[in-house]
């Protein structure tokens, strides 16, 4: 935009770039359905002395300067037990006066000058006039889902990052879509089990296409050799970093039989080198050697993918190890899950594992003891990744426990090595938590259980009670090394215990979402249920428990420290963070649309949940600058506020 082309009134009020393609309206006005006008006169502002101004000074009373630092004060994990719904930072943020006179799309979306950046990000994802204007559908009758020539569709699963019971409240158009530019939500069934699809333009998956593209034979001759990208002496150090950061959570490699950078399988070495790039600063040599010219993780991933595909005809244990490491590798774009490629790779991994007999228990086989332990560990890692990715993507599991004998690690399976008992503790506790997750997915989210539980709150509570008891017992019995109290302020080494606590919170939220489900399916019998004392008491208790859990989960996020940021975070952690804001969103939306179980005014409860959601967004934003994977959850919820609460949900 030139100086002569001034911004429209709406863009100037938001301090955003006014992007006009040819003629008004600009992109921002199109997205918000605002008139693109140029009526307000321009006022030259005097240059201010550079200083921090409280966000509240714009929309509300100015606070004393002593209150400002409270926004960035964090609470230690040790002071914020996950069963305690209150947290210091939550109390501090409650004291702020969020001005309700400002429309929702403006409220606490960005602080300290980040608003223009947020608008640019959202425009890149949600600008334009909707998918219908890009890919018109001329078919008569019901609009097609499967015949779009340039759009792809993915199911929004019940456990994934986009909760169908939240999406059902969106204001869908006549084609049953809520449209953006590169994304749209298409609802195909709005019954007790709602079904929606995420429609997207192909360019959102361009990165995955480039990485997973298999070169033609002529291209292979020009591809660089792995040893030309990573020298063997550097590769040796990267393998040690893998043991230190990744293997302690997922014991894929045998400490006594590490791959040789000179002669090891290309797919395994490239996968290790790729996933360890974020941790090179923790090596005394690599922190300088690779500071200016680090190998590209994408290039290494592509080499591993190509070599792994070449090995599919004759898979080996090393092939499974390489595939597991690629599954644990997070996409370079923190705003994407990369679910389609990762889910296909998981299916391929399970297939290779079954071919090699990893679904069997080799304990009594006449093999060397080291091979037996390796097989048992790999069998469990395949099982665990299948469960956590199924949760993350909202898909049915590839593996049934009826046909997979190693569903939990034995303490003797894990080699302690030089890293101490922490390796043993983390993997063993994650193993037990994964078993609980598998039970939750089977008992509360399988297709057959949904057909029975979706409207039966008594049966849902009966199924959920033992799962919640198992989860509470798991948390209570955590070893001191992984408990909240074991994280001193001055800890200097990366601390991965926070990822374990986040996983625990996510499983608990899954149980609570299932418990809330029957109460969200009461339209046909709402009058009868309002007079049912048992129903009202159950709804009241579950909503209180869910609200307390949401506050506790936000407290966990507020307690994150630099030592947590530097640890390895599995890719499904993105969905774990998204589950927290989804639960807050669900509680806020349903507070106005259900019979009130308490004498409390539904509007008052709605306001409380909205304030909790605002606090959570502020806390997430503070930590997203240090931990990239939080940005995915933040984008999911910020998009609703940026577009406008009323436009998305139909009420202000």
UniProtKB/TrEMBL annotation:
Bias type Polar residues, positions: 50-59
Region (Disordered): 47-85
GO terms of biological process kind: DNA-templated transcription; nitrogen catabolite activation of transcription from RNA polymerase II promoter
Domain of life of the source: Eukaryota
Amino-acid biosynthesis as UniProt keyword: no
Signal peptide: none
Entries under CDD domains matching the protein: fungal_TF_MHR, GAL4
Pfam families assigned: Fungal_trans (PF04082)
UniProt KW Nucleus keyword: yes
InterPro entries the UniProt entry points to: Carb_Metab_Trans_Reg, XnlR_reg_dom, Zn2-C6_fun-type_DNA-bd_sf, Zn2Cys6_DnaBD
Domain Zn(2)-C6 fungal-type per the UniProt entry, residue ranges: 7-38
Keywords annotated in UniProt: DNA-binding, Metal-binding, Nucleus, Transcription, Transcription regulation
An example molecular function term from Gene Ontology annotations: zinc ion binding
GO cellular component, one term: nucleus
Protein name (Swiss-Prot/TrEMBL): Fungal-specific transcription factor domain-containing protein
Organism field: Aspergillus coremiiformis
């Amino acid at each position: 935009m030139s100086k002569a082309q001034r911004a429209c009134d709406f863009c100037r009020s938001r301090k955003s770039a006014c992007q006009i393609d040819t003629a008004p309206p600009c992109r921002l006005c199109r997205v918000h359905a605002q008139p693109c006008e140029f009526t307000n006169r321009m006022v030259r502002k005097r240059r201010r002395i550079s200083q921090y101004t409280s966000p509240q000074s714009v929309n509300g009373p100015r606070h004393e300067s002593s209150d400002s630092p409270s926004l960035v004060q964090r609470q230690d994990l040790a002071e914020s037990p996950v069963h305690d719904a209150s947290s210091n930072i939550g109390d501090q943020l409650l004291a702020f006066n969020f001005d309700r006179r400002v429309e929702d799309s403006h409220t606490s979306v960005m602080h300290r000058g980040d608003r223009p950046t947020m608008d640019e990000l959202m425009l890149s994802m949600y600008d334009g006039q909707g998918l219908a204007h890009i890919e018109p559908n001329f078919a008569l009758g019901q609009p097609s889902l499967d015949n779009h020539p340039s759009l792809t569709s993915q199911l929004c699963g019940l456990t994934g990052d986009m909760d169908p019971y939240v999406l059902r409240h969106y204001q869908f158009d006549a084609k049953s879509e809520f449209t953006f530019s590169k994304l749209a939500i298409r609802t195909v069934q709005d019954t007790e089990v709602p079904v929606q699809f995420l429609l997207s333009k192909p360019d959102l998956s361009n990165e995955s296409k480039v990485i997973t593209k298999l070169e033609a034979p002529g291209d292979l001759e020009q591809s660089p050799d792995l040893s030309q990208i990573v020298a063997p002496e550097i590769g040796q150090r990267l393998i040690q970093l893998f043991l230190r950061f990744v293997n302690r959570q997922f014991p894929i490699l045998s400490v006594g039989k590490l791959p040789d950078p000179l002669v090891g399988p290309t797919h395994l070495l490239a996968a290790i080198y790729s996933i360890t790039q974020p941790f090179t600063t923790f090596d005394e040599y690599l922190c300088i050697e690779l500071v200016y010219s680090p190998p590209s993780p994408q290039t290494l991933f592509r080499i591993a993918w190509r070599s792994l595909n070449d090995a599919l005809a004759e898979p080996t244990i090393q092939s499974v190890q390489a595939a597991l490491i690629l599954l644990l590798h997070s996409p370079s774009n923190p705003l994407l899950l990369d679910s389609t490629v990762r889910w296909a790779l998981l299916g391929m991994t399970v297939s290779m594992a079954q071919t090699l007999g990893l679904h069997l228990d080799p304990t009594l086989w006449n093999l060397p003891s080291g091979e037996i332990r390796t097989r048992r560990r790999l069998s469990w890692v395949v099982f665990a990744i299948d469960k956590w990715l199924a949760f993350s993507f909202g898909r049915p599991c590839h593996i049934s426990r009826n046909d997979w004998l190693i569903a939990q690690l034995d303490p003797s399976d894990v080699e302690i090595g030089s890293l101490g008992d922490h390796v043993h503790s983390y993997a063993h506790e994650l193993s037990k938590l994964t078993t609980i997750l598998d039970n939750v997915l089977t008992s509360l989210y399988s297709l057959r259980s949904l057909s029975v539980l979706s409207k039966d709150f008594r049966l849902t509570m009966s199924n959920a009670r033992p799962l919640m008891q198992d989860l509470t017992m798991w948390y209570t019995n955590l070893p001191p090394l992984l408990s909240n109290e074991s994280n001193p302020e001055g800890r200097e080494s990366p601390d991965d215990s926070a990822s374990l606590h986040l996983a625990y919170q996510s499983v608990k939220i899954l149980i609570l979402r299932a418990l809330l489900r029957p109460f969200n399916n009461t339209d046909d019998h709402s009058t009868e249920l309002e007079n049912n004392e048992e129903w009202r008491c159950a709804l009241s208790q579950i909503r209180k428990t869910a609200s307390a859990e949401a506050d506790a989960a936000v407290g966990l996020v507020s307690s994150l420290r630099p030592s947590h940021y530097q640890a390895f975070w599995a890719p499904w952690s993105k969905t774990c963070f998204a589950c927290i804001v989804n639960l807050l969103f669900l509680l806020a939306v349903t507070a106005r649309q259900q019979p009130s179980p308490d004498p409390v005014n539904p509007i008052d409860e709605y306001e409380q949940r909205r304030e909790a959601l605002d606090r959570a967004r502020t806390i997430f934003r503070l930590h997203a600058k240090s931990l990239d994977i939080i940005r995915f959850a933040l984008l999911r919820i910020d998009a609703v506020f940026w577009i406008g609460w009323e436009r998305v949900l139909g009420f202000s």
